[in-house]
Design brief:
Layout lengths: L42 H10 L1 H22 L3 E10 L15 H15 L2 H8 L15 H8 L1 E3 L6 E9 L3 H58 L10 H39 L1 H13 L2 H22 L5 H34 L3 H72 L6 E13 L1 H28 L7 H7 L4 E6 L3 H4 L5 H21 L6 E5 L7 H14 L4 E5 L7 H4 L8 H5 L5 H4 L1 E2 L5 E4 L6 H7 L4 H11 L2 E5 L8 H7 L3 E7 L5 H13 L4 E9 L5 H8 L3 H6 L4
Parallel strand pairs: 5-12, 6-10, 6-11, 7-9, 7-10, 11-12
Antiparallel strand pairs: 1-3, 1-4, 2-3, 8-9
């Protein structure tokens, strides 16, 4: 099917005389339920995309698959690997010490540290420096350290305790791989494990030197202790004389007196703050205001008047009726309440000003007594503090030598404990050196095959198939992004535009054969669209119908010409108007001259009745586009088309306009202003959903009713009943045939 340009299928416009069929199924307008405009790609849309681009997808997939298979074949040859194993225990074994439960977090840190150390530069450099390693054929032309950094694999298989060191390569290099792995393992033991053991030995030696130093310090401190004890004539320094005991008792008594005085001063300050708050705070002001109001005659009169007014208000509200008198009483109550509040506030402000200008005499008297008592307590407290300081000085002089001796004894005990701990630690380190190591090698490098020729074939085949599938999916995705129409259900359910008919796809070869079953199917399908249009015209105005599309090449000319011919076969006077002024096609389809058409009418060169031509089909007339120029396009936008269409409505039962595409130009929208509705022609596998939706929105925005959509290019197989009907000779012709 085509939209604007002429195709052989358009020759069917005057063929066929079948009755309406049920192939064009009308559906009611629906609300969009599929996100056909912005939805993602699913299996169904991918299959439709690949159906449209199967040749391109196959070619791209084959190229990618062959290239990927070739790359995998050369990059994954039959190979072997060399592997050495180290055991990394979860904790250091001990001969006599209780180490306790292993720490999982510390063990994970140890494993990661060993992995980093194994692939470090200093280990790999030590491995390469071993005799004969740098000259191995597998390292020819390569930087040995960089090559090992990229190829060497160090892992913990199955997250266990065994550290695997392996190198992979071609099968013929297996001997070199074994030598390289052994060299790396030996360098790891020399540079990491042996240095760790040397560090522990150096710790033990440093501990022994520190122990010697501590023992020397103990000897010196002990000599000093003996000298001080002899000078004080109290070698044991464990008793006190009577004078010292008296001084300590006096100090204890003075301390208690000091605390008592401090508590009394704190209590006196607290009591003063409370009394001052009662005498000078807001509560005192409120109390004084209340006392003054109790003796104020003016305030008492206001209170009496307010009470009487409130009683009157209560009596009036009890009657249940509201009048002007009630409203007056309410206003008087409010006024009296405001006067009472104002009087009270004014009295309160006056009392506050008086208190500020004349301090409270009770508060002044209490403040004077408080200050006198507080000063006396402070003097007594200061005397106690001086006595306490003097007693402390006397006690310090008597205890000076005893304190020095006791302090030195404590230091001697501490040093002796440190020496004992260091001695036990040194002895344990000596013994633990004979315990099994936490990290030790359990296997030298061993060569093994990692892949065979069959595995190489399998890898290449699987990779090629995956690349082929990926290429097809990529082409399908690129095609999916164009959002082309996959079937009538996307128009009906996805865009909410009812589908009033589906037309089968028709090749040029079949279009030239009127007896072909698909041609009969096309005629039956368009008769179904005609039936819906005629049915709608009984309840709605459907005399002038615009057939348009979102873009070109979407079959609108086929739909318009076939629909007009079908209406003519149904006995309706039908006029087919070529509304695609810029690229007309109907004049060539009906083999009539281009000029003397609608454009000449727009330029007021001829009358519309003079340019309407009859066709070979009975009941069908044609109005060609005529010679289009800028004047005709400008005239189309004016109102001079209204009388023309009014005249056509009076002379024809149906006027079918083969309009221009909606998106990109305004011609179809202008013709739609004079029509009773529009039919959107869309083409499966060609029309793009966003453009269809945009065209529908443009038509709705200018007030053009959308009757429905006709989907072209839908695969269909002709019904046997249609074929059989075509083969039956009409009865009128059979009666005219001579009998034998």
């Amino acid at each position: 099917m085509i939209g604007g340009p002429l195709s052989p299928s358009d020759a069917l416009v005057v063929q066929g005389n079948g009755a309406p069929s049920g192939l064009a199924i009308p559906t009611a307008p629906t609300i969009a339920t599929q996100d056909v405009l912005r939805g993602g790609m699913d299996a169904n849309t991918l299959l439709h995309a690949l159906r449209r681009r199967w040749l391109l997808a196959t070619c791209v997939g084959l190229v990618l698959g062959l290239l990927t298979a070739a790359l995998l074949w050369f990059n994954f040859p039959a190979s072997s690997s060399a592997t050495a194993l180290f055991r990394v225990s979860n904790q250091q074994e001990s001969i006599f010490m209780d180490i306790g439960r292993p720490n999982p977090q510390a063990y994970e840190i140890l494993k990661k540290t060993q992995l980093a150390s194994l692939k470090s530069w200093f280990v790999l450099n030590a491995a390469v420096r071993k005799p004969g390693v740098a000259s191995l054929s597998v390292l020819a032309g390569e930087d040995p350290i960089e090559w090992l950094t990229e190829r060497l694999e160090a892992t913990y298989p199955q997250q266990g305790e065994y550290l695997s060191i392996s190198l992979s390569g071609n099968e013929e290099d297996s001997a070199d791989l074994v030598r390289l792995v052994d060299a790396v393992a030996a360098a790891y033991k020399d540079e990491v494990l042996f240095k760790e053991k040397s560090r522990r030995l150096s710790t033990r030696d440093m501990l022994n030197r520190s122990l010697t130093s501590v023992n020397d310090d103990i000897t010196n401190k002990w000599d000093e202790y003996i000298d001080i004890a002899k000078e004080s004539e109290r070698p044991q320094a464990t008793t006190r004389d009577a004078t010292t005991e008296l001084l300590m008792q006096e100090i204890s008594s003075l301390q208690k007196q000091r605390v008592a005085y401090e508590q009394r001063m704190y209590q006196m300050q607290t009591d003063y703050a409370l009394v001052k708050g009662r005498l000078d705070g807001p509560a005192a002001v409120e109390m004084q205001v209340e006392e003054a109001l109790q003796t104020d005659l003016a305030y008492q009169n206001l209170q009496s008047a307010l009470a009487m007014a409130q009683a009157s208000q209560l009596q009036a509200s009890g009657s249940g009726r509201r009048s002007r008198a009630t409203a007056g009483i309410e206003r008087r109550v409010a006024d009296l309440q405001n006067q009472v509040d104002s009087y009270r506030n004014a009295l309160k402000q006056r009392i506050q000003r008086e208190r500020m200008s004349q301090p409270n005499p009770l508060l002044r008297q209490y403040t004077k007594e408080f200050q006198t008592g507080l000063n006396a307590l402070r003097m007594q407290h200061a005397g106690v503090v001086r006595s306490l300081q003097a007693a402390m000085q006397a006690l310090n002089k008597r205890m000076e030598r005893s304190v020095a001796l006791d302090t030195l004894g404590v230091k001697l005990e501490q040093l002796q404990q440190i020496a004992n701990d260091m001695s036990m630690k040194s002895q344990s380190l000596e013994i633990e050196e004979n315990a099994p190591q936490q990290i030790e090698q359990v296997q030298q490098a061993v060569a093994s095959k990692t892949s065979s020729a069959m595995q190489q074939y399998a890898i290449s085949t699987i990779g090629g198939l995956a690349a082929f599938a990926l290429g097809c999916v990529a082409v399908g995705y690129l095609e999916f992004r164009s959002r082309r129409l996959n079937g009538p259900e996307e128009v009906n359910e996805g865009l909410g535009i009812r589908v009033i008919g589906t037309l089968p796809s028709l090749s040029s070869r079949h279009a030239l054969d009127p007896a072909h079953p698909i041609v009969a199917q096309l005629t039956e399908s368009i008769d179904g669209v005609r039936t819906i249009l005629m049915h709608d015209s009984t309840s709605k105005r459907r005399q002038v119908v615009l057939v348009t599309s979102a873009a070109t090449m979407e079959g609108r000319t086929t739909v318009a010409s076939q629909l007009a011919a079908s209406l003519a076969r149904a006995g309706r006077r039908t006029l087919l108007v070529d509304g695609d002024l810029r690229r007309p096609a109907l004049y060539a389809l009906f083999d009539v001259p281009l000029e003397d058409g609608l454009c000449e009418v727009l330029r007021a060169e001829v009358d519309v009745a003079d340019v309407i031509r009859p066709t070979h089909a009975e009941g069908l007339w044609l109005l060609t586009a005529g010679y289009c120029d800028i004047d005709a396009i400008h005239a189309l936008a004016t109102e001079q088309m209204q009388p023309v269409f009014d005249k056509l409505r009076n002379e024809y039962d149906f006027v079918i306009i083969d309009g221009a595409p909606v998106v990109g130009m305004s011609d179809a929208l202008i013709f739609g202003q004079y029509s009773d509705g529009a039919i959107l022609s869309v083409r499966r596998d060609h029309s793009q959903m966003p453009k269809i939706n945009h065209a529908a929105e443009l038509l709705r925005d200018v007030g053009i009713r959308i009757i429905g959509a006709v989907v072209n290019g839908v695969p269909a197989k002709a019904d046997d009943r249609i074929i059989q009907l075509r083969l039956i000779t009409p009865k009128a012709e059979r009666e005219l045939q001579p009998t034998g």
